[in-house]
Amino acid sequence: MTNIKKLVFIILLFMATFSYAGELWVLDSGQVKRFDSDNGNFLGVFASGGTGIQDMIFGPDGNLYVTDITSVLRFDGNTGAFIDTFVAPGSGGISNSRGLAFHSTGDLLVGDDVNSVLRFDGNTGNLVGTFASGLNRSTGVRYGPDGNLYVGNHDANVVSRFDGTTGAFMDTFASGGGLDHPHHFVFGPDGNLYVGARDGDRVLRYNGTTGAFIDTFIAPGSGGLNFAFHMAFDSNNNFFVSSIGSGQVLRYNATTGSFLGTFGAGNIGTAGALLFVETVPEPSSFFLSLLGLCLLFTKRKV
């Protein structure tokens, strides 16, 4: 192998193994708290306002939208500064906003304790109408890999699926396996659906294409899990679950489901919604490290 080829090999190996940073954001009674997803170190409060814990999501405008019981708040996606109350309190009959998703048109969809998913204009926040109906208390709201909308049908103990464009009911996607009172769920890196079972204190896994029950991914009470509320995967094979009954965020192996430890201990009061935010290393540190490798290689060659 020539020296140039050796150098290229070293650079490629370095880039392949370079660890990209990421943060886990926790919605704690109106405060969006930032944590290093690898070690759980508290990095500070990103945004603050209201008392919500249910859900948060980045919008197509790059800003952060956060549930606040009967309304939805908007924060600057870069600075965390409060922008406005995007959805006014009680608009459309909201009594407890639980889940957020953005339609392909940019409109905001809100799952609420009412038996429907409400649609709000993505520019003004004004009520457009009912997007999906026939639910028995809607909770978590997420678009799936197939482009359709999945909704936690809380009191029916199922996850329902609706056409992602029209809101027409499609089917009961996930049920059984001990699923009870689903609040939130997430599609994992394996494409499967992970759903928290409230009373069972566990996380269930379903086939992401067919909805068939696969297994109990997180065993009942594992690591002290009490009311599996919200979930998030990071890029380093971690699976986080907010245990709202114990006020903790718990970390599990994203492949096996084995308990790894309590996350962010001492800095979380009410463990609400979770959001993994992937970041990249500072360019200066990346290139300095790369330069160091090149110099080391050159020195050895001499």
Question: What does this molecule look like?
Answer:
- By secondary structure, this protein is mostly beta strands.
- It folds into two domains: 39 residues; 259 residues, 6 Propeller (Neuraminidase), CATH 2.120.10.
- 11% of the residues lie in helices and 42% in strands.
- It has two helices and 24 strands.
- The strands form six sheets. A four-stranded antiparallel beta sheet has the order 3-2-1-24, with no helix packed on it. A four-stranded antiparallel beta sheet has the order 4-5-6-7, with no helix packed on it.
- Helix 1 runs antiparallel to helix 2.
- The longest helix has 19 residues.
- The protein is globular.
What's the overall average pLDDT, rounded? 89
Count of separate structural domains = 2
**CATH first level of the largest domain:** Mainly Beta
Instruction: Tell me the number of helical segments per DSSP (H or I, 4 or more residues long).
Output: 2
Rg value: 21 Å
What's the quaternary structure here? single chain
Q: What structural category do the secondary elements indicate?
A: mainly beta
Please give the structural blueprint.
Layout: H1 3-17, E1 22-28, E2 31-36, E3 42-48, E4 56-58, E5 64-68, E6 71-75, E7 82-87, E8 99-102, E9 108-111, E10 116-120, E11 127-133, E12 138-143, E13 149-153, E14 158-162, E15 169-174, E16 185-187, E17 193-197, E18 202-206, E19 213-218, E20 228-233, E21 238-243, E22 248-253, E23 259-263, E24 274-278, H2 283-301
Antiparallel strand pairs: 1-2, 1-24, 2-3, 4-5, 5-6, 6-7, 8-9, 9-10, 10-11, 12-13, 13-14, 14-15, 16-17, 17-18, 18-19, 20-21, 21-22, 22-23
